[in-house]
């Protein structure tokens, strides 16, 4: 048997109720739904649905990524894949925050 791990996540209570109702209609548990999601991520090596947000200015994001990549090219020993992913999410949050203010 494979080793399993516990992973916790915080959810908006209303979204949780709505999602759990859908799972019930589909005849699956929330845990099964999460496992299905993870399985699809592994199989497709991507998020298994389109993620779109009209508030994200892709040109701004690409400029931020290019400048980050240029900085990493100058100092390759500082590159950490996990930090790089965290940086991407920080950049996305910054762009979303900027668009909320406009």
From TrEMBL:
The keyword NAD does not apply. One of its GO terms (biological process) is DNA-templated transcription. The keyword Glycosyltransferase does not apply. Gene3D superfamilies: Met repressor-like. InterPro entries: Arc_rbn_hlx_hlx (IPR013321), RelB/DinJ (IPR007337). Keywords: Toxin-antitoxin system. Belongs to the RelB/DinJ antitoxin family. This is Bifunctional antitoxin/transcriptional repressor RelB.
């Amino acid at each position: 048997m494979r080793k399993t791990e516990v992973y916790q996540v915080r959810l908006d209570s209303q979204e949780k109720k709505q999602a759990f109702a859908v799972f019930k209609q589909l005849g699956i548990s929330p845990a099964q739904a999460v496992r299905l999601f993870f399985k699809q991520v592994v199989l497709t090596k991507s998020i298994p649905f389109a993620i779109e947000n009209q508030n994200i200015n892709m040109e701004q994001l690409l400029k931020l990524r290019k400048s980050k990549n240029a900085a990493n090219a100058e100092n390759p020993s500082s590159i950490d894949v996990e930090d790089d992913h965290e940086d991407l999410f920080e950049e996305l949050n910054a762009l979303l925050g900027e668009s909320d203010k406009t």
